[in-house]
């Protein structure tokens, strides 16, 4: 051989189950299930294109009985039989290797992993190299000189560094760690009570399994020491089970595995017979003109719902028959053995849905009552943990929380198994509170965010709504299970049989939603948005919610009392202006005084006949010069600040004097985050009261708060997307953008510009972003609407590109029903075709603003995803990101590191997007939020 031999070994058996459960069910034109075949074929076609070595083979398991069964009869004995829909696909996958002219190798009595180990050893002995296409952790012991792995799903390499990150030891020590910790998936016993971290620490300290066992009698007395002594032989047996054989007789010599070109006619005919049109197209093979032209019609579930785009390949779309699996016959799991079977089945499948049931809605305080797992449509279970039961409906046996989570941990921590949640942030915080740390849960998908990434503003993202929309199924409601009002039962008192039907269905629906919605991420061009922004942000926000922010109780108490006193003073003035006392908080009484007794004009009655006194009505009256409405507005503002912030924050501060807001990820139509309990987005920015409230958010002793705020980000995006040379130049030169606008629009020199002219330009700049009318601008500036119209006309005359942008967004919304942010996020505008002119014009203003507001949201989210790693790499891993409020991020860090940390934050945020104008971030450091801001 003239070149160094490079053998590529594909773990066929390992990939089959992952493909089967990761892809939506589909059938060939003959009606045979082929989703695993499709996944395997796609992977093989890509491998031949991108990762071809000089030699290639696919390895399969021949049977379940191997030499390991003789050493330990319980090895893999608990694994369930393959699903019915998978069994006919095994032979088709072997056909696939033949069609691609790739050797498919198996050997009775040996696992595919042993064949892989032996071939890798053989090629290395010949001076060659080997790439193992697999994500199986059991094969990581082979990684080293000349041998690496490639994850077939993620297309990421696995070398010694990645192995050490996963196991805590180099590849040569992996088997020692595995032998100590055991593996419930394969029934490898290990040593009870020894988990991954402990096993790695022991091997690091003593070197090998045998050295650990020999040292155990001399260790300090503990339960761990006793377990090591008592289960030493089990650990030694485990070492034999996990160590791969490297001397298996090779069924086909390495020399005969040289890569060969497939017969394209044979391959094309086979792909056509399977119905894999997209693979035919990608490989440039077209359709054979043979007998398979009469293809069965596609059966795609939910393809017509909400205008969803259908995947291009017949066989790659979810088949309606699969989604019709019944929503019942769920299992109640009451024992460790039963739960272990479900965990093993999920690990075997490589995918599952998980859902938690709790005794409350605050994930930082609620207790887990049970959890459910689904491994396939229609296959789900519920694990009750803390149900109370009654004499009429006793709970029966149930696992303790700690015991159940210990059994669940290997599944949660297995990055080769995709765990699907709906609103993952909530469930991850519940599991964290119960004892499964946030940082240990890997490989998570979220159907709520998958849907939101491609349908923001189109509909709600709740599981029940999505189920009705995409699955044509109405799930059991929480109210029907617990009751309503005073008769509502805590979930812990719901009979377990009823709880099983409800909770297991939630996991089942979540899994089915994933099968329907995940493929559309690519077709709707939302895959990058989801995978690079929304999904990783979920765990970051969970950390932020868990951290909370410190508050000064004494300052909040002083504020509350001050607001109360001021409100009382306002009330006397209000009574005087009204001519009598009344209940100021009563809209009905206020309406009677304003419109019946005082005879003010402009009142409107609601459907019930009462006068409307909302803020817009009062503001209109106040603008006309009426005193009482203005006083009511001031009183309401202070009352809202008192109830929403000073009083509420005192209640929510908890034992550690920290407030934990909850970030809502899928509410707005633009991608912006919102916060609740408390809502920190509505604290007034430029008022004395707002400043005083921010002063109550503090840094603990020895810490500082850092505020980092994007400067005029939406105007910068407008200059970028509308391509306005003058605005771009102003931002690039660092000029005062409002003064520059005034100079351009009103033809006034920059030097010596008066404040009033600049203020008018500022009002236009920001008003344009929100589609302001001449009436609105005139009202804001205190000038006639006609004069305001001349300002707007002059603005558009100077910047015609902005008018073009606005019309382009209106047309885009009318055509598609949505507009796109500069980063590809869809923002739906449902009211764009309203018959009512007022509603339609409001929707048009939404269409104009959404790409700018949504673009700003995309940018700050990008920064939030990048910041934790950047701070960690710089040695500031203890710095905590606490809050996100509009275009601002707030951090808590050590006082001595604040300046250096602020510089890193500024750099990362300013590099979050590449625009035609610079992003500018203003940072501040202080002992409280107001001081930092």
Automatic annotation (TrEMBL):
<dbReference type="Pfam" id="PF02739">
    <property type="entry name" value="5_3_exonuc_N"/>
</dbReference>
<keyword id="KW-0235">DNA replication</keyword>
<dbReference type="InterPro" id="IPR002562">
    <property type="entry name" value="3'-5'_exonuclease_dom"/>
</dbReference>
<keyword id="KW-0238">DNA-binding</keyword>
<feature type="domain" description="5'-3' exonuclease">
    <location>
        <begin position="5"/>
        <end position="260"/>
    </location>
</feature>
<dbReference type="GO" id="GO:0006261">
    <property type="term" value="P:DNA-templated DNA replication"/>
</dbReference>
<dbReference type="GO" id="GO:0003677">
    <property type="term" value="F:DNA binding"/>
</dbReference>
<dbReference type="InterPro" id="IPR019760">
    <property type="entry name" value="DNA-dir_DNA_pol_A_CS"/>
</dbReference>
<feature type="domain" description="3'-5' exonuclease">
    <location>
        <begin position="330"/>
        <end position="522"/>
    </location>
</feature>
<dbReference type="Pfam" id="PF01367">
    <property type="entry name" value="5_3_exonuc"/>
</dbReference>
<keyword id="KW-0540">Nuclease</keyword>
<dbReference type="InterPro" id="IPR001098">
    <property type="entry name" value="DNA-dir_DNA_pol_A_palm_dom"/>
</dbReference>
<dbReference type="InterPro" id="IPR029060">
    <property type="entry name" value="PIN-like_dom_sf"/>
</dbReference>
<keyword id="KW-0808">Transferase</keyword>
<keyword id="KW-0269">Exonuclease</keyword>
<comment type="similarity">
    <text>Belongs to the DNA polymerase type-A family.</text>
</comment>
<dbReference type="InterPro" id="IPR020045">
    <property type="entry name" value="DNA_polI_H3TH"/>
</dbReference>
<keyword id="KW-0239">DNA-directed DNA polymerase</keyword>
<keyword id="KW-0378">Hydrolase</keyword>
<protein>
    <recommendedName>
        <fullName>DNA polymerase I</fullName>
        <ecNumber>2.7.7.7</ecNumber>
    </recommendedName>
</protein>
<keyword id="KW-0227">DNA damage</keyword>
<dbReference type="GO" id="GO:0003887">
    <property type="term" value="F:DNA-directed DNA polymerase activity"/>
</dbReference>
<dbReference type="InterPro" id="IPR043502">
    <property type="entry name" value="DNA/RNA_pol_sf"/>
</dbReference>
<dbReference type="InterPro" id="IPR036397">
    <property type="entry name" value="RNaseH_sf"/>
</dbReference>
<feature type="domain" description="DNA-directed DNA polymerase family A palm">
    <location>
        <begin position="690"/>
        <end position="897"/>
    </location>
</feature>
<dbReference type="GO" id="GO:0008408">
    <property type="term" value="F:3'-5' exonuclease activity"/>
</dbReference>
<dbReference type="Pfam" id="PF00476">
    <property type="entry name" value="DNA_pol_A"/>
</dbReference>
<comment type="function">
    <text>In addition to polymerase activity, this DNA polymerase exhibits 3'-5' and 5'-3' exonuclease activity.</text>
</comment>
<dbReference type="Pfam" id="PF01612">
    <property type="entry name" value="DNA_pol_A_exo1"/>
</dbReference>
<dbReference type="InterPro" id="IPR020046">
    <property type="entry name" value="5-3_exonucl_a-hlix_arch_N"/>
</dbReference>
<keyword id="KW-0548">Nucleotidyltransferase</keyword>
<dbReference type="InterPro" id="IPR012337">
    <property type="entry name" value="RNaseH-like_sf"/>
</dbReference>
<dbReference type="InterPro" id="IPR002298">
    <property type="entry name" value="DNA_polymerase_A"/>
</dbReference>
<comment type="subunit">
    <text>Single-chain monomer with multiple functions.</text>
</comment>
<dbReference type="GO" id="GO:0008409">
    <property type="term" value="F:5'-3' exonuclease activity"/>
</dbReference>
<dbReference type="GO" id="GO:0006302">
    <property type="term" value="P:double-strand break repair"/>
</dbReference>
<dbReference type="InterPro" id="IPR018320">
    <property type="entry name" value="DNA_polymerase_1"/>
</dbReference>
<dbReference type="InterPro" id="IPR036279">
    <property type="entry name" value="5-3_exonuclease_C_sf"/>
</dbReference>
<dbReference type="InterPro" id="IPR002421">
    <property type="entry name" value="5-3_exonuclease"/>
</dbReference>
<keyword id="KW-0234">DNA repair</keyword>
<dbReference type="InterPro" id="IPR008918">
    <property type="entry name" value="HhH2"/>
</dbReference>
């Amino acid at each position: 051989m003239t070149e160094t031999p490079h053998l590529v070994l594909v773990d066929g058996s390992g990939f089959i189950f992952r493909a089967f459960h990761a892809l939506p069910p589909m059938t060939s034109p003959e009606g045979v299930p082929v989703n695993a075949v499709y996944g395997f074929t796609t992977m093989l076609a890509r491998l031949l294109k991108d990762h071809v070595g000089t030699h290639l083979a696919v390895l399969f398991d021949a049977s379940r009985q191997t030499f390991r069964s003789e050493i330990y009869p319980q090895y893999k004995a608990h694994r369930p039989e393959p699903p019915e829909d998978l069994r006919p696909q095994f032979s088709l996958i072997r056909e696939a290797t033949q069609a691609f002219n790739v050797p498919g190798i198996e050997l009775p009595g040996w696992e595919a992993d042993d064949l892989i180990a032996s071939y890798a050893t053989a090629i290395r002995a010949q001076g060659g190299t080997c790439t193992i296409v697999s994500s199986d952790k059991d094969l990581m012991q082979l990684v080293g000189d000349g041998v690496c792995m490639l994850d077939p799903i993620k297309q990421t390499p696995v070398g010694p560094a990645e192995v050490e990150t996963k196991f805590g030891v180099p590849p040569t020590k992996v088997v020692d760690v595995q032998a100590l910790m055991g593996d419930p998936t394969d029934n490898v016993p290990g040593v009870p009570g020894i988990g991954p971290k402990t096993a790695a620490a022991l091997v690091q300290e003593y070197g090998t399994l045998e050295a650990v066992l020999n040292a155990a009698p001399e260790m300090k007395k503990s339960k761990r020491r006793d377990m090591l002594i008592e289960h030493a032989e089990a650990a030694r047996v485990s070492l034999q089970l996990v160590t791969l054989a490297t001397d298996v007789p090779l069924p086909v010599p390495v020399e005969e595995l040289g890569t060969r070109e497939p017969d394209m006619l044979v391959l094309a005919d086979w792909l056509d017979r399977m119905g894999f049109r997209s693979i035919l197209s990608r490989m440039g093979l077209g359709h054979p003109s043979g007998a398979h032209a009469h293809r069965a019609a596609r059966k795609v579930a939910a393809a017509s719902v909400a205008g969803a785009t259908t995947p291009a390949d017949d066989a790659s779309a979810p088949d309606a028959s699969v989604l019709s699996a019944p929503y019942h016959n769920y299992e109640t799991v009451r024992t460790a053995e039963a739960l272990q079977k479900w965990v093993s089945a999920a690990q075997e499948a490589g995918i599952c849905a998980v859902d938690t049931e709790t005794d409350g809605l605050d994930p930082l305080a609620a207790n887990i009552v049970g959890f459910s797992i689904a491994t396939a449509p229609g296959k789900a279970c519920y694990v009750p943990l803390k149900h109370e039961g009654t004499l009429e409906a006793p709970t029966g046996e149930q696992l303790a929380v700690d015991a159940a989570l210990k059994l669940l941990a290997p599944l949660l921590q297995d990055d080769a198994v995709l765990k699907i949640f709906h609103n993952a942030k909530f469930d991850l915080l519940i599991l964290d509170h119960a004892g499964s740390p946030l940082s240990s849960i890997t490989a998570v998908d979220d159907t709520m965010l998958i849907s939101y990434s491609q349908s923001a503003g189109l509909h709600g993202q709740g599981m029940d709504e999505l189920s009705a929309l995409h699955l044509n199924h109405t799930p059991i409601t929480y109210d029907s299970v617990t009751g309503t009002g005073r008769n509502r039962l805590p979930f812990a008192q719901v009979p377990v049989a009823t709880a099983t039907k409800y909770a297991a269905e939630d996991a089942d629906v979540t899994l089915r939603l994933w099968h329907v919605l995940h493929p559309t991420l690519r077709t709707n061009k939302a895959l990058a948005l989801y995978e690079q922004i929304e999904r990783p942000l979920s765990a970051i926000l969970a950390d932020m919610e868990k951290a909370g922010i410190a508050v000064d109780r004494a300052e909040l108490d002083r504020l509350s009392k001050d607001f109360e006193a001021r409100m009382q003073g306002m009330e006397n003035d209000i009574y005087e202006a009204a001519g009598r006392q009344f209940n100021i908080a009563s809209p009905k009484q206020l309406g009677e005084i304003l419109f019946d007794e005082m005879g003010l004009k402009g009142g409107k009655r609601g459907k019930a006949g009462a006068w409307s006194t909302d803020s817009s009505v009062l503001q209109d009256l106040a603008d006309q010069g009426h005193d009482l409405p203005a006083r009511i507005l001031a009183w309401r503002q202070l009352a809202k600040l008192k109830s929403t912030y000073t009083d509420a924050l005192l209640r929510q501060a908890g034992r550690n004097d920290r407030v934990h807001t909850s970030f809502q990820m899928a509410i707005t139509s633009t991608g912006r985050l919102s916060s609740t309990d408390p809502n920190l987005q509505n604290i007034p920015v430029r008022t004395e009261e707002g400043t005083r409230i921010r002063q109550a958010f503090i840094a603990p002793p020895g810490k500082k708060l850092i505020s980092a705020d994007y400067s005029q980000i939406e105007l910068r995006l407008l200059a970028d997307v509308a391509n306005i040379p003058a605005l771009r130049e102003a931002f690039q030169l660092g000029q005062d953008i409002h003064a520059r606008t005034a100079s351009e629009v009103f033809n006034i020199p920059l030097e010596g510009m008066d404040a009033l002219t600049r203020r008018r330009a500022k009002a236009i700049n920001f008003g344009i972003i929100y589609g302001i009318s001449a009436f609105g601008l005139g009202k804001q500036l205190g000038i006639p609407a006609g004069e305001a119209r001349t300002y707007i006309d002059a603005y558009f005359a100077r910047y015609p590109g902005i008018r073009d942008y606005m019309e382009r967004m209106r047309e885009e919304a009318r055509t598609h029903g949505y507009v796109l942010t500069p980063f590809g996020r869809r923002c739906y505008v449902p009211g764009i075709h309203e018959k009512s002119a007022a509603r339609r014009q409001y929707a048009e203003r939404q269409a104009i603003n959404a790409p700018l507001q949504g673009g700003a949201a995309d940018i700050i989210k990008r920064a939030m995803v990048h910041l934790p790693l950047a701070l960690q790499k710089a040695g500031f891993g203890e710095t905590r990101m606490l809050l996100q409020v509009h275009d601002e991020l707030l951090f808590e860090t050590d006082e001595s590191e604040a300046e250096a940390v602020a510089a890193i934050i500024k750099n990362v945020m300013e590099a979050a997007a590449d625009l035609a104008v610079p992003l500018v971030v203003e940072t501040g450091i202080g002992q409280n939020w107001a001081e930092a801001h």
